[in-house]
Design a protein that fits this description.
Layout: E1 15-20, H1 24-33, E2 54-58, H2 76-96, H3 109-134, E3 137-140, E4 142-147, E5 150-154, E6 160-170, E7 174-176, H4 190-193, E8 202-206, H5 210-222, E9 225-230, H6 241-252, E10 257-261, E11 265-270, E12 276-280, E13 285-288, E14 290-293, E15 297-299, H7 306-309, E16 332-334, H8 345-360, E17 374-376, E18 383-387, H9 390-397, E19 400-407, H10 412-415, E20 421-428, E21 433-440, H11 444-456, H12 461-465, E22 486-489, E23 492-494
Parallel strand pairs: 1-2, 1-6, 2-3, 6-16, 8-9, 8-14, 9-10
Antiparallel strand pairs: 4-5, 5-6, 7-15, 11-12, 12-13, 17-18, 18-21, 19-20, 19-22, 20-21, 22-23
Bound molecules: flavin-adenine dinucleotide and nicotinamide-adenine-dinucleotide (NAD).
Length: 497
């Protein structure tokens, strides 16, 4: 795409760009597109010198009901909940190493929620200030397209205003989807779980994606008894099969998690004492205090007026875009979860940044979705993953070598905790390039970020082998796996090496 003119609107419209949605992608896109030298205030805005006149419309400047997401996005909620939930494991481990005075630890949910909310509010404020410093005009309210160059802003007081703009960037994200089973309204979603007044003693989680697995482990870490219902054989579809199975095996070892695969709820009812009864499609009953539906997210495009602007929308509500995040309308762009590419915060940031650099910065920057690392924060058994699964690699390269290692992390040689870590390296045999790395175990997320750099640079297995390990660490296993577990030749798994 040829670079467009900076601030080319020349007074025809009120703004060069209106951004609808101020989460991860929208804040980044607007901040980078905006800012001329005169409004540069902090170091944080120094990179942003593209000079467009930008307005950003965000439904809420403060997290929580009814919009839940707010300026800057609320992803950090999960991070804090994960950290909070891990202490139960750490406190147990500490005692096995001789620490005392912590034999009967208790957790105060309301103290934790209060501190978490305070931190998220602080972040909301920071994002508001960053935008202000960058010179982005920020409006609280709902944005809706009236035409390709007009956006209706409905403020918190219900008042409507029409803003005109040369271009629009849509970054409205998604909203949790609940299947329409009987009593679904009694279930909460990931929106509400961040605001529970009390920790449920018994939680049923429905679904088998990131959110289902993470919240099953988070709430179990805090002490809830969790039943995870997933409609198919094994959760986390799309992840490497060995990693999925390894995590399922590890979760099955935990006393307070009951994994129920091939199980789906048929109805949810309220008992006279306000607790809930979940009846599965097979007719089994489970009693719980709370049901979390983690059954996917739907792009938030329903009332966005996309039809009035002529923007194409897929059946599932997502917006198709080209490699520069442009929709079928030349002046309308979309980034982040609403486009249904990879739904991760850093990906939305990258897409927003590339958009601004290309359209207002005179650069030619396409977001690069290859070797994007991801993590599932499943307690002490988190997954860190980058690149292809074994199945995908065999499909693409036919000749593939697989290295695998399962071992007990050194920490647990003294704790007595029955847990294992899995590491897997997938290599395209002909080029020796490492095309997939999958880790399940403590600190997997931290490890995979560094591995992703090597993979992005095209590292071969030989490069991994020639790197000296760091001892003692679990990560050193990544550079000491010398013997392949098995190979594929011409797409067929070889029984013997
Ligand atoms: C529970 C949960 C945990 C997650 N954990 C992680 C994680 O650990 N790591 C990770 O990388 N990703 C995580 N994600 C995914 C990540 O949050 C998204 O990929 C990312 O936020 C997408 O950014 P976005 O800009 O597209 O949308 P969002 O960040 O969702 O922002 C959209 C914004 O638009 C606003 N909005 C919507 N409609 C309108 C409108 N009409 N007018 C005005 N404003 C509007 C919303 O209020 C919201 O603030 C998680 C998601 C969820 C739900
Ligand atoms: N750690 C992270 O980076 C992180 C954490 C949370 C979310 N996310 C992002 O957010 C996105 C959304 O997460 P998610 O967990 O909501 O979605 P998901 O697509 O990962 O999982 C949805 C799950 O719900 C199940 N499901 C769908 N419809 C159902 C139905 N009618 N009945 C029963 N089950 C049904 C699916 O089989 C799937 O297992 C993810 O794709 C991910 O990119 C990332």
């Amino acid at each position: 795409m040829s670079a467009m003119l900076r601030g080319s609107n020349k007074g025809k419209y009120m703004y060069d760009l209106i951004v609808i949605g101020g989460g991860s992608g929208g804040v980044r896109g607007s901040r980078i597109a905006n800012v001329d030298e005169e409004t540069l205030v902090t170091d944080d805005t120094k990179a942003a010198t593209h000079g467009a006149k930008v307005a950003l419309i965000e439904a809420s400047m403060h997290h929580g009901p009814p919009h839940y997401a707010a300026i800057g996005g609320t992803c950090v909620n999960v991070g804090l909940m994960v950290y909070g939930s891990l202490f139960s494991h750490d406190l147990h481990a500490a005692q096995q190493y001789g620490w005392s005075g912590i034999s009967n630890p208790t957790h105060d949910w309301s103290t934790f929620m209060e501190k978490k909310d305070k931190e998220i509010s602080r972040l909301n404020g920071i994002y508001g200030r960053i935008l202000g410093n960058a010179g982005v005009e920020t409006f609280e309210g709902i944005g809706r397209l009236k035409s390709a160059h007009e956006v209706v802003l409905t403020g918190p007081d219900g008042k409507e205003e029409v803003l005109t703009t040369e271009r629009v960037l849509i970054s409205v994200g998604g909203w949790p989807f609940k299947p329409s089973i009987e009593g679904a309204d009694l279930a909460i979603t990931s929106n509400e779980i961040f605001y529970l007044k009390e920790r449920p003693d018994r939680l049923v989680v429905v679904g088998g994606g990131y959110i289902a697995v993470e919240f099953a482990m988070i709430m179990a870490g805090f002490g809830s008894k969790v039943t995870l219902m997933y409609r198919r054989d094994l959760f986390l579809r799309g992840f490497d099969d060995d990693v999925r199975q390894h995590l399922a095996d590890e979760m099955s070892k935990l006393d307070n998690i009951d994994l129920q695969f091939n199980t789906n709820p048929a109805k949810i009812e309220k008992n006279p004492d306000e607790t809930l009864k979940i009846t599965t499609e097979a007719g089994d009953e489970v009693e719980a205090d709370c049901v979390l539906m983690a059954t996917g997210r739907t792009p938030k495009t329903e009332d966005l007026g996309l039809d009035l602007a002529g923007v194409e929308v897929r059946k599932d509500g997502s917006i198709p875009v080209d490699e520069y995040s442009k929709t079928n309308v030349d002046t309308i762009f979309a980034i982040g979860d609403v486009t249904d590419r990879i739904q991760l915060t850093p990906v939305a940031l990258m897409e927003g940044h590339c958009f601004a650099d290309t359209v207002y910065g005179g650069m030619d920057r396409k977001p690069d979705h290859e070797y994007v690392p991801s993590a599932v924060f499943a307690g002490k058994n988190e997954i860190g993953s980058c690149g292809q699964t074994e199945e995908q690699a065999v499909e693409e390269y036919k000749d593939v070598t697989v290295f695998k290692s399962t071992f007990k992390p050194m920490l647990h040689t003294l704790t007595g905790v029955d847990t294992k870590m899995l590491m897997k390296i997938i290599v395209a045999s002909e080029s020796d390039r490492v095309v997939g790395v999958h880790i399940c175990g403590e600190h997997a997320a931290e490890m995979i970020q560094s591995v992703a750099i090597a993979m992005k640079m095209g590292a071969t297995k030989k490069d991994f082998d020639s790197t000296v390990g760091l001892h003692p660490s679990s990560a050193e296993e990544l550079v000491t796996m010398r013997s392949p577990a098995y190979r594929y030749v011409d797409g067929k798994k070889e029984a013997k090496l």
